[in-house]
């Protein structure tokens, strides 16, 4: 066969794979409907492990690397779990879903919002905003039913501005979503061979690529309101030498190409986003839940430790504890807390009563489905590894 024919054959196989993945997702939704009716848990990790072992054995018989199959099916299983969770919880956004996000099309927030909508079988319409505060205002005023905010990154840590804004809003956190972030240096195709003297990027992207950027000589790095804004600036340039820090997918929307790839200081760079709306959501009991809150302890020794002891006594898993200065009260702190617990659970209900009695104030920001999907791991059979030396 000629090369062209071989490539056409590969494309035909890829179409079959895509159709099969879509069919698998449809069946996963049917499984979710059955589980919801019978109050079954979303995940069955023993079955997942058994399935993965069986697939690895079948793949080995066909000459496929078990490690390759394990990585592939971990992604497929994660998509199935998140799709089922989304169906069980979200039934109030049929058809079109408008989400207020930072930046224009192509920004990381735009990509995360698009993924959130499509997982819920909704068409996506973005509402571009220039700041985090504008996102909250758009939702508060009803111009968008949902807003998406980046709240922490696996490399650069918490986004403090978002934490500070959450204290002053009446909106509720109703969901979370995660986006794998890969930063690239993007330029116009006709300028890809020219030396770069200026790089534009969002402050968080710049912080996440600090090691790479610090090694560049005679290059100025300038902050922008969003990654999409940075790419738009570069796309409008008529002279070479300017570049943007952003994703390849976003760059394609502005006809930009990458000249340097995967620049984050740490591998596996991910950003966690939260979704906010005017009313809280109901989280089915069979879904893993996260409850987020703000509390202020009394300004006395051991006050925070006493509050944490309450959580431990009720066997509540503390996922995150973030302190922020309290405006107008020098040297006093607010604490943002994430717990792996359902807001309606007896353990949390009792702990909340005790915390209210011992803190200056406590405010629950929201209870929502936990989208952290732990990968299914199995021990690869020795026959799949091959003989040792």
TrEMBL record:
<dbReference type="Pfam" id="PF01817">
    <property type="entry name" value="CM_2"/>
</dbReference>
<dbReference type="InterPro" id="IPR045865">
    <property type="entry name" value="ACT-like_dom_sf"/>
</dbReference>
<dbReference type="GO" id="GO:0009094">
    <property type="term" value="P:L-phenylalanine biosynthetic process"/>
</dbReference>
<keyword id="KW-0456">Lyase</keyword>
<feature type="site" description="Essential for prephenate dehydratase activity">
    <location>
        <position position="271"/>
    </location>
</feature>
<feature type="binding site">
    <location>
        <position position="48"/>
    </location>
    <ligand>
        <name>substrate</name>
    </ligand>
</feature>
<dbReference type="InterPro" id="IPR018528">
    <property type="entry name" value="Preph_deHydtase_CS"/>
</dbReference>
<feature type="domain" description="Prephenate dehydratase">
    <location>
        <begin position="98"/>
        <end position="278"/>
    </location>
</feature>
<comment type="function">
    <text>Catalyzes the Claisen rearrangement of chorismate to prephenate and the decarboxylation/dehydration of prephenate to phenylpyruvate.</text>
</comment>
<feature type="binding site">
    <location>
        <position position="44"/>
    </location>
    <ligand>
        <name>substrate</name>
    </ligand>
</feature>
<keyword id="KW-0057">Aromatic amino acid biosynthesis</keyword>
<dbReference type="InterPro" id="IPR036979">
    <property type="entry name" value="CM_dom_sf"/>
</dbReference>
<keyword id="KW-0028">Amino-acid biosynthesis</keyword>
<dbReference type="Pfam" id="PF00800">
    <property type="entry name" value="PDT"/>
</dbReference>
<dbReference type="GO" id="GO:0046417">
    <property type="term" value="P:chorismate metabolic process"/>
</dbReference>
<feature type="domain" description="ACT">
    <location>
        <begin position="292"/>
        <end position="369"/>
    </location>
</feature>
<keyword id="KW-0413">Isomerase</keyword>
<dbReference type="GO" id="GO:0005737">
    <property type="term" value="C:cytoplasm"/>
</dbReference>
<feature type="binding site">
    <location>
        <position position="35"/>
    </location>
    <ligand>
        <name>substrate</name>
    </ligand>
</feature>
<dbReference type="InterPro" id="IPR001086">
    <property type="entry name" value="Preph_deHydtase"/>
</dbReference>
<keyword id="KW-0511">Multifunctional enzyme</keyword>
<feature type="binding site">
    <location>
        <position position="80"/>
    </location>
    <ligand>
        <name>substrate</name>
    </ligand>
</feature>
<comment type="pathway">
    <text>Metabolic intermediate biosynthesis; prephenate biosynthesis; prephenate from chorismate: step 1/1.</text>
</comment>
<feature type="domain" description="Chorismate mutase">
    <location>
        <begin position="1"/>
        <end position="88"/>
    </location>
</feature>
<keyword id="KW-0584">Phenylalanine biosynthesis</keyword>
<feature type="binding site">
    <location>
        <position position="24"/>
    </location>
    <ligand>
        <name>substrate</name>
    </ligand>
</feature>
<dbReference type="GO" id="GO:0004664">
    <property type="term" value="F:prephenate dehydratase activity"/>
</dbReference>
<dbReference type="InterPro" id="IPR010952">
    <property type="entry name" value="CM_P_1"/>
</dbReference>
<dbReference type="InterPro" id="IPR002912">
    <property type="entry name" value="ACT_dom"/>
</dbReference>
<dbReference type="InterPro" id="IPR002701">
    <property type="entry name" value="CM_II_prokaryot"/>
</dbReference>
<dbReference type="InterPro" id="IPR036263">
    <property type="entry name" value="Chorismate_II_sf"/>
</dbReference>
<dbReference type="GO" id="GO:0004106">
    <property type="term" value="F:chorismate mutase activity"/>
</dbReference>
<dbReference type="InterPro" id="IPR008242">
    <property type="entry name" value="Chor_mutase/pphenate_deHydtase"/>
</dbReference>
<keyword id="KW-0963">Cytoplasm</keyword>
<feature type="binding site">
    <location>
        <position position="7"/>
    </location>
    <ligand>
        <name>substrate</name>
    </ligand>
</feature>
<comment type="pathway">
    <text>Amino-acid biosynthesis; L-phenylalanine biosynthesis; phenylpyruvate from prephenate: step 1/1.</text>
</comment>
<protein>
    <recommendedName>
        <fullName>Bifunctional chorismate mutase/prephenate dehydratase</fullName>
        <ecNumber>4.2.1.51</ecNumber>
        <ecNumber>5.4.99.5</ecNumber>
    </recommendedName>
</protein>
<feature type="binding site">
    <location>
        <position position="84"/>
    </location>
    <ligand>
        <name>substrate</name>
    </ligand>
</feature>
């Amino acid at each position: 066969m000629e090369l062209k024919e071989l490539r056409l054959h590969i494309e035909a196989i890829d179409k079959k794979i895509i159709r099969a993945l879509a069919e698998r997702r449809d069946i996963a939704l049917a499984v979710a409907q059955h589980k919801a009716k019978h109050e079954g848990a979303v995940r069955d990790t023993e079955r997942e492990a058994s399935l993965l072992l069986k697939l690895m054995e079948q793949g080995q018989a066909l000459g496929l690397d078990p490690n390759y199959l394990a990585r592939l099916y971990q992604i497929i299983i994660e998509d199935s779990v998140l799709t089922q969770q989304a169906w069980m919880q979200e039934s109030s956004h049929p058809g079109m879903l408008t989400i207020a996000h930072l930046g224009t099309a192509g920004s990381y927030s735009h990509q995360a919002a698009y993924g959130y909508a499509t997982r819920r079988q909704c068409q996506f319409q973005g509402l571009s905003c220039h700041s985090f505060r504008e996102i909250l205002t758009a939702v508060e005023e009803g111009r968008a039913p949902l807003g998406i905010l980046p709240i922490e990154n696996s490399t650069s840590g918490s986004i403090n501005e978002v934490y500070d804004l959450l204290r002053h809003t009446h909106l509720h956190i109703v969901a979370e979503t995660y986006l794998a972030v890969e930063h690239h240096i993007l330029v116009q195709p006709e300028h890809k061979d020219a030396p770069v003297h200026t790089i534009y990027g969002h402050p968080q992207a710049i912080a996440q690529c600090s090691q790479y950027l610090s090694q560049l000589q005679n290059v100025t790095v300038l902050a922008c309101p969003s990654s999409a804004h940075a790419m738009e600036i570069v796309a409008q340039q008529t002279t070479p030498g300017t570049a943007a820090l952003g994703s390849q997918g976003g760059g394609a929307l502005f006809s930009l190409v990458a000249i340097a790839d995967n620049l984050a200081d740490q591998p596996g760079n991910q950003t966690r986003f939260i979704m906010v709306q005017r009313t809280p959501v109901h989280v089915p009991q069979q879904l893993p839940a996260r409850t987020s809150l703000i509390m202020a302890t009394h300004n006395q020794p051991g006050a925070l430790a006493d509050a944490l002891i309450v959580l431990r006594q009720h066997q509540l898993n503390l996922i995150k504890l973030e302190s922020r200065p309290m405006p107008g009260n020098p040297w006093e702190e607010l604490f943002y807390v994430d717990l792996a617990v359902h807001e309606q659970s007896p353990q949390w209900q009792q702990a909340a009563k005790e915390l209210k009695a011992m803190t200056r104030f406590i405010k629950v920001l929201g209870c929502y489905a936990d989208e952290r999907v732990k990968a299914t791991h199995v021990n690869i059979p020795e026959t799949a590894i091959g003989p040792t030396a």
